[in-house]
């Protein structure tokens, strides 16, 4: 749902000030705000589709990352932490992100320099996560890896920035070990999907 139906445009400064006073979290893109956990399609319609599996996967991934990075100078953050692609936006709430940037370590409301971002896919948001959102994220100079984690099957796609500045795709499935080079971490895919029950279609 668009949060500011009475306004055609909200500036980044207006959004940041307005959102601080809201009981819910809102994302910001192209002058419009959208309720967290809703994304937009090509017609600017809100889409939903989060499940228990979605939450469990995000918790499992966050826990694995936190355990690996404890004491190494990294911050591991979940869905309630705001990411600013730039000072003027867009602003998103990734499911999981990791940063080791000194400015981010002192941040109070917005993370700006992550090295790793992960989104758990939902039927209504998958296209946006793969398309416009990834396009936005690629503007972040410190980003090295972008994970897309399926909530319907054991499958993780990792887009990794190579030495030539190109994004390469590695896909992991049943029985694989996921490699995250940005944080020197390897984790069995089964750990990411621990205790997850997939929905029957």
Please give a structural write-up:
The chain has helices at 12-20, 52-69, 102-105, 126-130, 132-137, 189-192, and strands at 26-29, 32-35, 39-40, 46-47, 75-78, 82-84, 91-92, 96-99, 110-111, 116-120, 145-149, 156-161, 167-172, 177-180, 185-188. With 201 residues, it is an alpha+beta fold. The chain has one domain (50-192): tt1808, chain A. The longest helix is centred in the N-terminal third of the chain and has 18 residues, at 52-69.
What's the helical proportion of residues?
10-25%
How are the strands of the largest sheet arranged? 5-8-10-11-12-13
What count of structural domains?
1
Q: Within the CATH hierarchy, at the fold level, what is the topology?
A: tt1808, chain A
Structural class by secondary-structure content: alpha+beta
Indicate the mean pLDDT: 89
Cα-based radius of gyration, to the nearest Å? 17 Å
Distance between the termini: 26 Å
Low-confidence stretches: 1-6, 39-48
Largest sheet properties: 6 strands, mixed
One letter per element, helices H and strands E, the order comes to HEEEEHEEEEHEEHHEEEEEH
Total count of strands: 15
């Amino acid at each position: 749902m668009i949060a500011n139906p009475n306004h055609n445009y909200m500036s980044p400064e207006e959004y940041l000030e307005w959102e601080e006073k809201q009981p819910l979290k809102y994302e910001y893109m192209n002058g419009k705000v959208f309720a967290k956990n809703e994304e937009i399609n090509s017609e600017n319609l809100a889409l939903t589709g989060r499940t228990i599996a979605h939450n469990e996967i995000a918790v499992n991934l966050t826990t694995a990352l936190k355990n690996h990075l404890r004491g190494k100078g990294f911050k591991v953050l979940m869905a309630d932490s705001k990411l600013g692609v730039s000072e003027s936006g867009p602003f998103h709430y990734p499911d999981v992100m990791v940063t080791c940037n000194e400015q981010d370590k002192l941040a109070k409301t917005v993370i700006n320099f992550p090295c790793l971002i992960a989104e758990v896919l939902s039927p209504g948001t998958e296209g946006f996560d793969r398309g416009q959102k990834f396009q936005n994220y690629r503007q972040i100079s410190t980003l090295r890896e972008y994970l897309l984690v399926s909530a319907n099957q054991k499958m993780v796609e990792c887009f990794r920035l190579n030495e030539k500045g190109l994004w390469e795709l590695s896909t992991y499935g049943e029985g694989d070990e996921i490699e995250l080079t940005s944080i020197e971490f390897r984790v069995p895919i089964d750990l990411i999907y621990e205790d997850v029950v997939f929905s029957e279609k």
